Hints:
The protein has 69 residues and is α+β, with helices and mostly antiparallel strands. It has helices spanning 2-10, 25-30, 53-67, and strands at residues 38-41, 44-48. The protein contains three helices and two strands; from the N terminus they run ααββα. Strands 1-2 form a two-stranded antiparallel ribbon. It is globular.
Amino acid sequence: MLLAFRCALASERVSAAAIEANEFPQLSQEMGVYAVPRIVVDGEPRWDGAVPEAEFIRRITAGAETNGP
């Protein structure tokens, strides 16, 4: 989660939020949260669980490349 926040600080194209799944059960259900962290990109759940920093960056930049500027 800290890496997501660091990315958001580094780029105005990235925003990050942490939501406590137990405190927001309806949102958790809507996002299909069964594992944490659940990474959501552009409102769509993309992957579950922690990944190494390089892989995290690769995944979010791959999404940016397909969505354009």
